[in-house]
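Sequence in, structure out.
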Amino acid sequence: MRRPWRIAAAALFLAAVLLSGLLGDRVLAVTDRAKETLRQFTELVETAHEGYGDEISYRDLVNASIEGMIRTLDPHTAFLTELDYQSMRDKQESSFSGLGILVGLRDGALTVITPLEGTPASRMGIRAGDVISTIEGEPTETMGVDEAVRRLKGPRGTSVTIEIARRGMPDLLEVEIVRDEIPQNSVRYAYMLDDKVGYLSLTDFNRGTAREMEKVIDRLRSQGMERLLLDLRSNGGGLLDQAIAVANLFVPAGGKIVETRGRTRESFQDFHASDAGPIYHDPIVVLVGGGTASAAEILSGAIQDHDIGLVVGTPTWGKGLVQTVYSLSYGNGLSVTTAKYYTPSGRLIQRDYSSWYDYQYDDRAPVEPALEEGEAETFYTDLGRKVYGGGGITPDVVAEPDDLAPFVQYLLARSAFFNFAVELNNREAVSDRSWSPQPDLLDEFQGWLLAQELIAEKDLAEGLAIAENRDMVLRYLRAEVLGAAFGLEARHRVLVQGDSQVVAALTQLDEAEALLAERRRVLESRPDQNADGLGSPTVGSLN
C-alpha cells in the first residue's frame, strides 16, 4: 500500500507546482528546481509517515497537504471530492431525474415541504407535511438531507419505494414512485404584484436560466407587466455564461456586461451584450443583499452601471473570483481562481479576504459611514452617477431587512406554523386562495402550541400580548396554510406583502422610470454614442 500513496503524494505536489502555470489547456514545463522541491516533498511525506508517534496513513498526509495548499491561495479555490464534484455538476444542470419534492428537516424528521406540481410525487398524492420514514427500507432518521436527496434521485424510469408518516393516519403509507425528469428552475417565484408591477425571484444561474428568464418575462408582460422588481437576495451565483446571457435580456446592445482580469494574458476578457438588443426595456429595480454573490453581482452591477435600473437593499456578498474547474483522477475536481470580475464602470466585485475570519463572518456593515468619511472608492455610471467600490455592489438605496421578533423566531424554529397548517389542511382542506385566518383561529393555535408543549403558557401570553407579534403570527399562519394547500408561491405571496425591503424597492420604481427616461434622452441627444459611451466621467480608481 505504500507505493501507491507515494505516487499520489508526488502527483499532488506536481499538481501544486503546475497550478500556477495553468493556461487553459497549456501547462508550463517542470524546472529542475521544481523537481528538486518535489523530491523534498515526497521525502517529507515518507518521514512523517514513518516517524510520527501515532498511526497515520498516507491518505491522511496527502489530504492534509491538499488542504494546506488550498488554504494558502484564496477562499474559493477548492479541492472537490468525487461527491462534491458531482453535486456541483448536478446543480449546474437545468433538470434532474427524481420525484419532484422539496424536503427539509422539521423537528428532526425528513419532511416534505411541498410537492412540485405535475411531478411524480404530486401525481402519487404526496402532501406537504408528510414525513418520509424510510427510503428503500432504510430509516431516514439518521440520514442528512443531502444523503436522502441522493437516494431519492436516480435514472429516469426507475422506481423508489418510500414509507410516509402522515398526520391523522395511524399506519405508515408505502408508496412506490417512478422517477421522471424534474426541471431545476432558477426562477423560484414569478407573478404580478398588481396590474402593472411584476415580481421575479431568481435563485441561481444554471444551464437553463437565460431561457427560463426569457419565457417568464414574456409571460409577465402578457399579464400586463410594465415594471419589474427583480429579487436577487438569495442568489449565490452560478455559471458565467448564463449570467451574461441573462444580462443580455436587459443591457443595451453592445454594452459591456463584465470584465475579467488575472495574471495571464488570456484572463483579460471583456463580455458585451449581443447586437440583438435586450427584450426588456421598461423600469426595473433590483433587490440585493448579503446573499447576493458572484454571477448575481455581475447582473446587478451591469444594470446599475448602465443606468437601466436601480439597485435597492444592502451591500452584496462581494464574490468576484473567476473559478475554473479542472477534472482530476478518481472523479475528483479542482476549482481554481484564475481571474477577478470587474463591473462595466471598473469596480472590483471581490471584497478583501486577507482575513479569512472577517471574510467568512463579516456581516457587511452598512455603507453610510464609509461614504460619509470619503473612504469608499468612487466610480461612475454611464450617466455620471456615483457608485462605490470596495467589494460587492453597493445599492443605490439602502433598505435594511426587518428583524423578526424573538417570539416569532422561536415559533419558526420549532416549525410551529408549518405543522399547525398541515394539521389544519388535513382536517379541512382550504380551497380558496383568498383564505384568511379568523380571530378564533388564533385561540385554536394557542391551544395547539400548549398541547404540543412547544412553549410555556406564560411565555405564550407575553408574546401574544404585543400587537406586532399577533399580526406577524396571523400572517405566518395564513402563509403556511395557503402554502400547504396551494404550494410555495401561495405562501410567498402572503409573506412578501410584509417584506420591508420589497416595500422599499417598490417605492423606487418611479425613480427607476425617471432614470431610464434620462438615459434615453441622453442617447437621443448623442446618436453617435454607443452603449458604453454616454460621456460619463472617467473612472476614479481601479484595483
